[in-house]
Structures are given as C-alpha cells and as structure tokens.
C-alpha cells in the first residue's frame, strides 16, 4: 500500500502533544481515577456506528482521490479487473520504502481508528474497524497485490498511534487547547458536529512527574560497517530536541481500559548531513496491581509497543507485544527509585540491509521498487531505571535489546536470510537548577550485529554525548 500523507504530520504529533495536554493536572485531581472498572461508554450519547463506518470509508476515498487525481499515481487507477485480481491473488510482502511502511501506514490507519473512537466505539471495536478498512484498502483501493505487512502495520501501529492521539486530544480539549485538531482531526470534526460529551472517568490525567521536554547540543561519534560506501568513521557536532509524555499513573493498579496508561518518547536529532527521527511507545492493554501504598507502588502489565528510528544512518522498527513490570519506591524523604522492564515478542520488526541500502548494488529494472530492509520477528527486552535525590539530582538509565530473525519469504532482492542483534542504551545525570528546569549530561549508544548466510556480516556502532536543558512538568 502506498501512502501520500506527509511525514511532518507525524512529527507534529510528537511535539504538539505536550502543548496539547493540561499542565496543572496531577494524578490525584481526577477522583474518577479511583474506579477499577470501565463501566460507562466513551461518550454519553449512543455510539454512532454508522457514522464511524462512513468516516473511515471517507478517509479511504479522500486518500484514493488524492493519489489518483492529484498525484496521478499508477497504483491508484483501480478498475473492476484490478479488484478481481486483488481478491483472487495471494497476499505478498511488499517493496515499499521504509517511511511509507513503518510511519505512513500507522498514521493513515489512525484515521480509521479515531473515526471509531470519536463516535463512541470502544478500543476493541475501533481496532476491528481499523483492520476492516485496511483490508478494504488492500483489496479495492490499489492496483498492487495486497500486502501482508501493510495489514499488520496499518492495524497494530494504528491502534497505538490512534489511541494515543485520541486520548491526548481529549486531554487538550479539557485544557481548551485551540489547535487540538492537529492531534486528531476526526475528534475535532465530530466534536463540532455532534458536541460530544465524554465521561471523564474513562480518561486518565497526565503523570507529570515523568513528562518532560528537553534540548541541547552534543557530539555524534560513529563506527559504520565497511560495506557502506563513503565515510565509515563519523564525528560531527549535533543538536537534539526530545519530548516524553507519561499518560496515567504507570505504577497504579487502577487501569480500567486499554491505554489508560501509556508512555511515548520522541526525539529529533540532526548532525549535518545526518538526521534521525525516533519514537518509542508502550501502552498498557491490561494491568494487574501488585502493591499500592504511600511508599511503594508496582504493577504487572500487558503492553503493546510501537517503536521506530528513521534516519540517514539507521532504519529500525519494532511492533511488539509483551509483559511489563513497573515499580516506584520512596526510599526516604529525599530518595526515590523507579524501575520498569518489558519482555516482548516482536511480531513484526524491520531493519536496514546495509549491502543494499548503502552498497553499490545495481538492478536491471532501476525504476521498480526495491526494498532496502528486511522484515523480521523475534524477542526483546526493555529496561528503565532512575534514582533521584531531591538535593543531589538523579541518574537515569534505559536500554533495549532485540533478537530479530528474518521472516522466511521476505528477504529482499540481493539480501540474505539471517538474524540481527540490535541494542540501544542511554545514561544521564541531571539536577534541578530552577523550579521545573533541569540541566544534565547524557551519553547514548546504538549497535547492530547482523549475521547472514548469503552475505557478509555487519557490525556497527553509533554513539553520542550531549549536554541538555530539560523542563519537567
């Protein structure tokens, strides 16, 4: 499936979402958060199933019309013959570019999803609506053979993106944010038409203690694989902007519905001529509270993860489902600790194949699409820890590692079967210098080792060190 939606809309989501949420709400100010079960519908009116179906279909027709009449894309000239061919064809793994598949499809599908949520459908009903419209697009709205990866990414990724956007829109609505439609156009349209009145107990407040915005200068240091053409060793000054949102109490047992708690971190880093756009998120589908006292809170969670890095040096994505453990401990009046961990199944991952992406591979048909990354599945883990002293500051650690095996039948032309081990990590120290403002230093690393049966192995390392200013809310 092709996608003409501009990537800047995704970037806007990442950085406007902090502006969109109320900055004076704390976890204790929503008395409805004490309820353990979601007993009321999302909006006070009866769910508008028919309107949701029409709006989701309208988003398909609008995008299809743009592709055909404005962009004049070959794949948009559908006919009865193309529909019949798609319906009777075997689904394939497509050759679309990384940003189209890993970023564009989840964002496009979020329109299907929010068409449901903004009309009162539940999380699971909206998920089914998303899957149904993705299938419709693959079979009807393009001349290309239906794609397995498009169906997975448009459904799973869109659930994550759509639910986060929907909830942040509601948070911005309660704060009177004028540009909230940037987050979720369908929510804005339906609020204007129907005057939606939502049940506030269905939504969580922002967990301000771990929500932040930061920026600063740094240095990029990289040791790239020799199979890349051009410069292998890279040393460049860099700048970054990063934002993190924690929605709902991550340590509470009182999670009443999917995504009543989620965490999302976005980062843009530039180092001429290199760039990187990153997003890491996890949303709780189900929570079991373990402990909830004044000094100690902990919970087990079932989480859906949507992560990607899109840049000039790294292309990486992981759609995962896994178990999580989150704990917060007030050790003393001055000390507090937090620990979060996830053990995940990566049901669809992707990472660049260096030999194709940066090598000197040539093709007989240069005009045809040739995928430069593989599709993979495997296991992985994430951890996050901080120790904070009210006077001396805090130390923050986070990291992940994934073991990704190439899915049979998805090897790109001139690629190879095999597996990759991908790891990332950050360590930071920061101290509050003024109410809400912190100064710090951070070191980050990314490494990849790829082991292949029909190509040379790959070993790469990218590191950076930065000074930063951070605003905690």
From TrEMBL:
This is DUF3943 domain-containing protein. It comes from the Bacteria. Keywords: Signal. Residues 91-168 form the DUF3943 domain. It comes from Breznakiella homolactica. Pfam families: DUF3943. Residues 1-27 form the signal peptide.
């Amino acid at each position: 499936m092709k996608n003409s939606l501009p990537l800047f809309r995704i970037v806007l989501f990442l950085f406007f979402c902090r502006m969109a949420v109320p900055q004076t709400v704390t976890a204790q100010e929503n008395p409805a958060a004490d309820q353990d079960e979601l007993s009321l519908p999302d909006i006070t009116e009866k769910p508008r199933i028919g309107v949701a179906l029409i709006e989701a279909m309208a988003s398909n027709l609008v995008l299809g019309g743009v592709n055909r009449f404005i962009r004049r894309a070959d794949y948009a000239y559908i006919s009865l013959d193309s529909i019949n061919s798609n319906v009777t064809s075997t689904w394939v793994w497509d050759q679309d570019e990384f940003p189209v598949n890993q970023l564009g499809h989840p964002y496009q599908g979020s329109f299907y999803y929010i068409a449901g949520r903004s009309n009162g459908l539940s999380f699971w009903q909206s998920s089914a609506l998303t899957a149904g419209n993705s299938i419709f697009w693959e079979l009807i709205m393009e001349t290309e053979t239906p794609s397995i990866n498009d169906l997975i990414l448009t459904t799973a990724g869109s659930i994550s993106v759509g639910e986060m956007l929907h909830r942040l829109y509601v948070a911005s609505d309660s704060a009177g944010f004028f540009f909230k439609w940037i987050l979720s156009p369908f929510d804005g349209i339906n609020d204007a038409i129907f005057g939606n009145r939502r049940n506030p107990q269905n939504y969580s407040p922002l967990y301000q203690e771990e929500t932040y915005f930061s920026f600063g200068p740094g240095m990029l240091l990289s040791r790239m694989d020799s199979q890349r053409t051009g410069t292998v060793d890279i040393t460049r000054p860099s700048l970054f902007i990063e934002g993190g949102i924690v929605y709902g109490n991550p340590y509470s047992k009182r999670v009443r519905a999917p995504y009543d708690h989620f965490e999302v971190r976005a980062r843009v880093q530039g180092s001429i001529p290199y760039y990187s756009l990153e997003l890491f998120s996890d949303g709780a589908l189900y929570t079991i509270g373990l402990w909830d006292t004044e000094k100690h809170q902990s919970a087990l969670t079932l989480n859906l993860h949507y992560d990607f890095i899109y840049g000039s040096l790294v292309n990486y994505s992981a759609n995962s489902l896994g178990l999580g453990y989150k704990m917060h401990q007030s050790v003393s009046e001055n000390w507090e600790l937090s620990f979060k961990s996830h053990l995940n199944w990566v049901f669809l991952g992707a990472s660049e194949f260096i030999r194709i992406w940066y090598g000197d591979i040539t093709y007989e048909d240069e005009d045809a699409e040739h995928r430069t990354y593989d599709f993979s599945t495997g296991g992985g883990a994430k951890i996050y820890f901080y120790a904070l002293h009210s006077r001396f500051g805090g130390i923050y650690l986070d990291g992940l590692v994934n073991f990704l095996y190439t899915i049979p039948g998805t090897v790109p032309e001139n690629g190879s079967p095999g597996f990759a081990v991908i790891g990332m990590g950050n360590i930071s120290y920061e101290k509050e210098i003024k109410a809400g403002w912190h100064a710090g230093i951070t070191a980050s690393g990314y490494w990849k080792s790829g082991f292949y049966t029909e190509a040379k192995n790959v070993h790469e390392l990218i590191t950076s060190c930065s000074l930063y200013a951070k605003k905690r809310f």
